[in-house]
């Protein structure tokens, strides 16, 4: 409980410092909105032309996209600089975090925090549009609303675990930008769409090596398509906690091997 209160205090302090530059905040929010809108519109236009892709409708893809967007936004809001550990390793700024009277990971998670309003807002809009249409078709009921919240939260945990494990690899590799491009950026972009669109080897990689498929695709098979039974959802929850546990262990191992590379 003490750690939670400390985390909240550090997050508030970080957000206050970011809001000192209001123009930058609003400008970055608007630009992020345009980027995400244009990305989804390209997919939507293609699907509106052909109707569906391998049996997946526009509203189902919209649901996958919305869940991934919100889960990623939660992860990046609550643990922003985990994704930017490389700069701390290269500059030696991690040493300053080691001297603080708080756990290193907690200090890192609360650095440069910012609320990703554009991503969260657009994700909510996409989910609202998708779920309204799917409810009208009788594909889902109102029980899908709390289940969607659960899926988003487990998705955020999985994305945080992937990001933390990738960051921890930096204790050995130092330069991890290329690795992050694969394990975080590329994999998350791929998982915005049904994994059934990809070859089997890539599906396996996105479910086993980098389990982003459990962020939205696997639970969506149960929720929207009624496949696999409740075990699909329970398995997703189990994967999220297992991934978090493994990532935390890997982080602690890496931190114990850390040697400053800064001046």
Automatic annotation (TrEMBL):
Tagged with keyword Lyase: no
Keyword Transport recorded: no
Pfam families per UniProt: ABC2_membrane_6 (PF06182)
Protein name (Swiss-Prot/TrEMBL): ABC-2 family transporter protein
Organism (species): Paenibacillus alginolyticus
Keywords in alphabetical order: Membrane, Transmembrane, Transmembrane helix
Highest taxon listed in the record's lineage: Bacteria
InterPro entries: ABC-2_transporter-like
Transmembrane spans: 21-50, 56-75, 115-135, 147-173, 201-224, 230-248
Signal peptide: none
